[in-house]
Amino acid sequence: MGVKFENVTKMYQNGRPAVQALSLEVQSGELLVLIGPSGCGKTTTLRMINRLEEPTSGSIYVDGHDVRSYNPIQLRRGIGYAIQQTGLLPHMTVEQNIELVPRLLKWDKKRRQERTRELLEMVGMEYRVFAHRYPRQLSGGQQQRVGVLRALATDPPVILMDEPFGALDPISREVLQNELKRLQAKLHKTIIFVTHDIDEAMRLGDRVAILRDGQLLQVGTPTELLRAP
Ligand code: ADP
Ligand code: ADP
User: Fold this and answer.
1) 88 with 143: CB under 8 angstroms?
2) Which of 68, 79, 179, 185 is the most buried (most CB within 10 A)?
3) In its keyword annotation, does this UniProt entry include Hydrolase (predicted)?
4) ipTM score
5) Is the CB of 144 within 6 Å of ligand 2?
């Protein structure tokens, strides 16, 4: 399922456009990294895909359909979203956090539990050990894993990731990057991954899009970008 931006501009109340005349197509099954310095419009770009923000002008298409044609709530349930602050609910266990959306979709208990088990084991966390812990009883790396698993729970074809490993130490970060690469090879999701870390971008991206001051400077495979002057 592809994602396409067509001449998208976003102005907030005051100041310069946060995103300006952005046109970009992300192919189905591709992992595209959006990179650029803080404030260049990366988060805004992601949040317009699942309609947490509306563009001021231009159009965004998911699976060929204008996002305005989807019900925003259904759109958000159909697109995975993982952020640096994980958004894990502290008073809920790992299992309850992961099955949040499946529950809204009225999956029965058995199916939810099987899915949680499968997801946890995919990232090397044993269900028996971790499912009933609270987020504060996990390491930083484990919390970020659970944040990502929650975004994967209903097996959405499109996943948005906003610096999901940003708060980690370099070693945990590299472990999670490798896990994501492995998952991506297996699951063929369309992933848009935001970071300001060039090494992370080059390691993860099938293609990398460079943003500056809300504008797309360049887009290409890591090899193409390294070759560019
Ligand atoms: P990045 O993710 O690259 O750090 P953002 O998309 O968060 O960039 O922000 C892009 C620009 O838009 C920044 O100048 C930021 O201050 C501004 N901005 C972001 N969110 C809002 C908001 N809700 N209201 C006003 N300005 C905002
Ligand atoms: P990661 O590489 O996932 O960040 P760490 O090296 O930070 O893992 O943590 C190592 C181990 O310590 C983890 O397997 C985790 O089970 C355990 N651990 C860390 N913090 C806690 C905690 N607050 N409660 C229980 N176990 C913890």
Assistant:
1) yes
2) 79
3) no
4) 0.69
5) no
Atom of ligand 2 nearest to the CA of 142: 3
Per the structure block, which two tokens stand in for 97? 């956090």
Residue 84 near ligand 1, beta carbon < 6 Å: no
Q: Which helix (H) or strand (E) holds 194?
A: strand 190-195
Cα separation values, 195 from 9, 134, 167, Å: 21, 27, 11
Determine if ligand 2 sits within 6 Å of the CB of residue 141: yes
* Residue 43 CB–ligand 1 contact under 6 Å: yes
Model pLDDT for residues 56-102, shown as the tens digit of each residue: 999 999 999 999 999 998 888 889 998 888 889 999 999 999 999 89
3-class DSSP assignment, residue 174: helix
User: Which string of b and e fits 92-124 if b means at least 16 CB within 10 Å?
Assistant: ebbbbbbbbbbeeeebeeeebbebbbebbebbe
- Residues 34 and 180 sit within 8 Å (Cβ to Cβ): no
Residue 52's CB is within 10 A of a number of other CB atoms, namely 15
pLDDT, residue 186, reads 86
- Nearest-angstrom CA–CA distance, 3 and 54: 15
Nearest ligand to the CA of 209 is 1
- What count of other Cβ atoms lies within 10 Å of the Cβ of residue 83? 19
Q: For the chain, what's the residue count?
A: 229
State the virtual CA torsion across 62, 88, 123, 181 in degrees, nearest 10. 40
